[in-house]
Design brief:
This protein is an alpha+beta fold and 207 residues long. It has 2 domains: 41 residues, no CATH class; 163 residues, Galactose-binding domain-like (Jelly Rolls), CATH 2.60.120.260. The chain contains 2 helices and 11 strands; from the N terminus they run αβββββββββββα. The strands form 2 sheets. Strands 1-3-4-11-6-9 form a 6-stranded antiparallel sheet, with no helix packed on it. It has a 5-stranded antiparallel sheet with strand order 2-5-10-7-8, with no helix packed on it. α1 packs antiparallel against α2. It starts with a helix and ends with a helix.
Length: 207
């Protein structure tokens, strides 16, 4: 009986660890960094790992225009598509049903070229949505971190980031997106050690 109780507890510990979701190309970099600007229509797959939604997005290297460097890599995406308002990107990845996942990304805007220095971005996944806003009345873009959390309800999830505002009035830049399972108090660096210890305990039962 003691053996079964211990084995059940160890297996429960392993099962409780959320599956790491793989967010492809969170820095929104191209395969070939040979351009400064591209206007992508909705349904484009040119950004590796992502597809564009709504009217599409603007994809560019901000330093080419004398603006603040991208938070990760060289490129950022403007969800406020200047040529047709309402733009977005999305990505589908594997998840563990019931596990909690945390998206972190950088959101930037500026007050320049006729924009008013504010923006709103709608982030959604598995029936959960949240609006993130940013305000910056400087000419150069300022980025700040944002965090979005959702619980997976299936073996996969589609994450979307969209700006639904008038693009002639707003910049809505995103970059540096990362996705990790919530660790419920266990530091990410310690998860591997916890798993190794659990497997070690299982092996010890058969020695």
């Amino acid at each position: 009986m003691r053996f079964l109780v211990l084995l059940t507890a160890i297996l429960a510990t392993l099962a409780a660890r959320p599956t790491r979701a793989e967010l492809l190309n969170g820095s929104l970099e191209p395969d070939n960094a040979s351009f400064d600007y591209q206007l992508l229509p909705g349904g484009s797959l040119l950004i590796p790992g992502w597809s564009t939604t709504d009217s599409g997005v603007e994809w560019f290297r901000p330093t080419h225009y004398g603006d603040t460097p991208a938070p990760a890599g060289m490129y950022v995406v403007d969800l406020a598509n200047y040529f047709a308002s309402a733009g977005g990107v999305q990505q589908t990845f594997a998840t563990q049903p019931g596990a909690v996942y945390v998206l972190e990304f950088q959101l930037g805007t500026s007050q320049s070229v006729g924009r008013n220095g504010s923006c709103e971005v709608v982030v959604a996944a598995d029936g959960v949505s949240e609006i993130f806003s940013a305000v910056n009345h400087a000419v150069l873009t300022v980025y700040s971190p944002r965090v979005f959390t959702f619980t997976a309800d299936d073996v996969s999830a589609t994450l979307s980031l969209r700006c639904l505002q008038d693009a002639t009035q707003h910049f809505a830049y995103i970059d540096a997106a990362t996705l990790n399972p919530a660790t419920t108090g266990v530091p990410e660096a310690d998860i591997g050690e916890t798993e190794a210890a659990a497997w070690g305990a299982i092996k010890a039962l058969f020695r």
